[in-house]
Amino acid sequence: VFEVSADKLLEYTRRACERLGWEDIGVDPQQSRLRAQVRTPLLRFVDDLEARVEAAGPTSAKLYVRSSSRIGRGDLGANARHVLDLYQAVDAVIAEADSRA
Known about the structure:
Elements: H1 6-19, E1 23-28, E2 33-39, E3 46-57, E4 60-69, H2 78-100
Antiparallel strand pairs: 1-2, 2-3, 3-4
Helix pairs in contact: 1-2
């Protein structure tokens, strides 16, 4: 749960994906969803990441994230890392926005 509105959280999540260098970032504001493609550093496999934002109150929102590999059985923890990286990047974007205000 983040202490920002759902609209802002979706925008901050998009910015975080850009900062992480993820590709084909698509945002559907009406569904409060975001999708992105993440390339693994070692073998350059493409993983799909989906995020959904849900209002938790007038000034707070929840962020749900899912990452999955397109091919292969094991991911060596890459998908869990994508999710954690996104949460950390969103925290950084929010902190930066707060420092400007």
